[in-house]
């Protein structure tokens, strides 16, 4: 037994074929796969002289002829017996992905169609109505829709003999604030209706004609009062909503902004009560029937009582909204309503002087007379003085002074600027309640 280094090949028995001669190595090649310069060549370059090679094997080793340059690389040979990768997993993944994409797209399409109010298919062709959402439609509490859902159940339509107005619940035991001109003449025939369609009888608690505020009481349990805001903290440009029953259209809501503050107005029928307002002006659509309804801020709080409109119509029946509506500030309405509930009547705030109204030769409120023991006299004002400002609000005439004084509660200290002759002076006046 040897390691084969010097083994010799023993030819098989003669079969009629001769053993092929061993070819000489190519030029410059040794039998150990190296060039004469010692650089390695392809491992098969001495295959024909390999003593272990079977010369009778059907396959032959062909050594390409040596030439200039290097020929193209041999083409890769694929093993026919190598196992092939299956396409089943790839097809399965593609199928699952397509099914998921189709299902998701269909679900999103259906959702968008339902939210957009569209109908498709046979139902749309037959005019089938879309299904209503259970429990109604809810809105975010700070949206206009959310504010309406919060406030509307507390707003009432006030019915009197031959007239209609609005109001709003301010206590759980049934007190409702409205306008004096809404309930005027209807003491014994008052009723209210709510947004849910229910109705109830109402009785008059009290009224203050000059401020145009009245209080009625509703005989119904389970009432939800509105939230009252602070009318001293609003600003021009704030968004507002006006609630009421304009032209007998119950449960109406309109939207606008605060257009102006302390807009002084004198209103009333000839021969009747003269009413004074230092009002919140708004461009929210307000018409006849809105009177007594709430003006609400973006927080859902009542900041005013809708009371008066300015119109180009010749008569009350022709009057309509032109974007000029006026509301009593809620701070004033709340104070007067509290006086009515607690005492049966409201205290009227006065400055202790009689003023000239209408057109005057100079701007400001001229004092015709001053009560000796009144607030104006105590502050040093005299007959003939012209009050030009009250709490920085510029006065045009006596109506402005009366309306502004009515806005404040008795006991309030206000800064007054007045003109005496050619000099301008200032004083602090402590307003008081009248003795009536």
UniProtKB/TrEMBL annotation:
GO terms for molecular function: serine-type endopeptidase activity. Pfam families: PDZ_2, Trypsin_2. One of its GO terms (biological process) is proteolysis. The keyword Transmembrane helix applies. The chain crosses the membrane at residues 90-114. Residues 340-392 form the PDZ domain. Residues 10-26 have a biased composition (Pro residues). Residues 1-51, 63-82 are annotated as: Disordered. It comes from Paractinoplanes rishiriensis. InterPro entries: Chloro_Bact_Ser_Proteases, PDZ, PDZ_sf, Peptidase_S1_PA, Peptidase_S1_PA_chymotrypsin, Peptidase_S1C. Keywords: Hydrolase, Membrane, Protease, Transmembrane, Transmembrane helix. This is Protease. Belongs to the peptidase S1C family. Residues 27-39 have a biased composition (Low complexity). PANTHER family: PEPTIDASE S12 (PTHR43343), PROTEASE DO-LIKE 8, CHLOROPLASTIC (PTHR43343:SF3). The keyword Protease applies.
């Amino acid at each position: 037994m040897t390691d084969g280094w010097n083994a010799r090949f023993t030819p098989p028995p003669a079969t009629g074929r001769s053993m092929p001669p061993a070819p000489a190595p190519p030029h410059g090649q040794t039998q150990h796969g190296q060039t004469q310069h010692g650089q390695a060549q392809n491992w098969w370059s001495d295959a024909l002289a390999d003593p272990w090679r079977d010369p009778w094997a059907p396959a032959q080793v062909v050594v390409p002829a040596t030439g200039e340059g290097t020929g193209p690389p041999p083409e890769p040979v694929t093993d026919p017996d190598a196992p092939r990768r299956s396409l089943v997993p790839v097809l399965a993944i593609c199928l699952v992905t397509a099914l998921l994409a189709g299902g998701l797209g269909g679900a999103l399409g259906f959702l968008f169609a339902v939210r957009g109010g569209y109908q498709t298919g046979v139902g749309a062709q037959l005019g089938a109505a879309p299904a209503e959402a259970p429990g109604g439609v809810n809105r975010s509490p700070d949206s206009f829709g959310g504010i309406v859902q919060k406030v509307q159940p507390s707003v009432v339509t006030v019915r009197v003999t031959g007239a209609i107005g609005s109001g709003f619940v301010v206590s759980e035991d049934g007190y409702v604030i409205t306008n004096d001109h809404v309930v005027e003449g209807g003491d014994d025939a008052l009723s209210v209706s709510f947004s849910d369609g229910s109705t109830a009888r109402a009785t008059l608690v009290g009224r203050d004609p000059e401020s145009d505020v009245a209080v009625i009481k509703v005989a119904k349990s389970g009432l939800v009062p509105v939230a009252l805001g602070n009318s001293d903290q609003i600003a021009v440009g704030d968004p507002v909503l006006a609630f009421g029953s304009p032209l007998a259209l119950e449960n109406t809501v309109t939207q606008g902004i605060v257009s102006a503050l302390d807009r002084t107005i004198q209103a009333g029928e000839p021969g009747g009560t003269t009413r004074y307002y230092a009002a919140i002006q708004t461009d929210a659509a307000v018409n006849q029937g809105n009177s007594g309804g709430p003006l609400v801020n973006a927080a859902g709080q009542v900041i005013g009582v809708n009371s008066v409109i300015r119109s180009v119509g010749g008569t009350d029946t022709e009057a309509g909204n032109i974007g000029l509506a006026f509301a009593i500030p809620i701070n004033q309405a709340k104070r007067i309503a509290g006086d009515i509930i607690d005492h049966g009547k409201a205290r009227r705030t006065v400055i202790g002087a009689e003023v000239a109204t209408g057109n005057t030769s100079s701007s400001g409120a001229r004092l015709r007379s001053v009560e000796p023991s009144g607030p104006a006299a105590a502050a040093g004002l005299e007959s003939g003085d012209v009050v030009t400002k009250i709490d920085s609000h510029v006065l045009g005439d006596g109506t402005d002074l009366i309306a502004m004084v009515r806005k404040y509660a008795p006991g309030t200290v206000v800064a007054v600027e007045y003109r005496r002759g050619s000099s301008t002076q200032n004083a602090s006046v402590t307003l008081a309640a009248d003795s009536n």
